[in-house]
Description:
Elements: E1 8-10, E2 16-18, E3 22-23, H1 29-42, E4 46-48, H2 56-66, E5 74-79, H3 86-100, E6 105-110, H4 120-132, E7 136-142, H5 146-156, E8 162-166, H6 174-182, E9 186-190, E10 192-195, H7 203-212, H8 216-226, E11 229-232, H9 238-244, H10 254-261
Parallel strand pairs: 3-4, 4-5, 5-6, 6-7, 7-8, 8-9, 9-11
Antiparallel strand pairs: 1-2
Helix pairs in contact: 1-2, 3-4, 4-5, 7-8
EC number: 1.1.1.-, 1.1.1.274
Domain NADP-dependent oxidoreductase: 31-263
Family: Belongs to the aldo/keto reductase family.
Amino acid sequence: MNNNTVPVYNLNDGHILPQIALGTYQIRGMQGVDQILAAIQTGYRLIDTSTNYDSEGAVGEAIRRSGIPRSSFYVTSKLPGQYHHREDALKMIEETLLRLRLDYLDLYLIHWPLPKRDNYVEAWTALIEAQKRGLIRSIGVSNFEAAHLDRIIEATGVTPAVNQNEIHPYWIQNSLLQANKDRGIVTEAWSPLGRGIGELKEPIILELAEKYHKNAGQIILRWHLQRGVLPVPKAGSLQHQRDNLALWNFELTADEVIAISSLTKVDGRVDNQDPNTYEEFN
């Protein structure tokens, strides 16, 4: 699919994001540059990285090698937990831009709230300041629950543009999706295919793949889109990159969306990472 035909989501700050991103977790080094460059040539323009992924350098290099204007891209990175204090966060944002060799980020997220440490409100004030300085266009969060969202909104008067959360058929997060929507926040999904093991083999997914002449991954990604979610799948191979952009020429029925959602599990998280207790540090 040509990038110009990928639909966009409108953010609450007036900016836009394409409806699918390239995830770069475990995509790094020169091989990573080649993989990201191939994705760019396939049509991706929203690229998701993080300081914790060690892929920021590869993302920046691939963008430069592409020959495509910087203004055509939407680059996301994320703040590590060890830099939640205001001045540390501001310096880390500058460091991220140095690693990417870019003048600004299109989207920057607090990676985890880490409520036990309770510095995420301070981190949010740093993102607001960096946005005012022109270092970031849109600011958001990742792995925030509704209570975390309300706390930063009430403390600063600034609502995140995006909340990136773990969402996949085994962990559908209905209440959090509604909480984000109620606050005018676009939801992104990390690990949108789960870990690519169980969900891709579920009978309902395989049945729909056969019906629509798609693969199982495409069915799940389409399910995300029809729930208003922006999926961030990692795709290293060219074939997977192409498949993940071929999502807008078919549509699931409402009953099929519900059937996929019924796969959700009480313990469906891929690594049991509860944002209320998870500690990002090793």
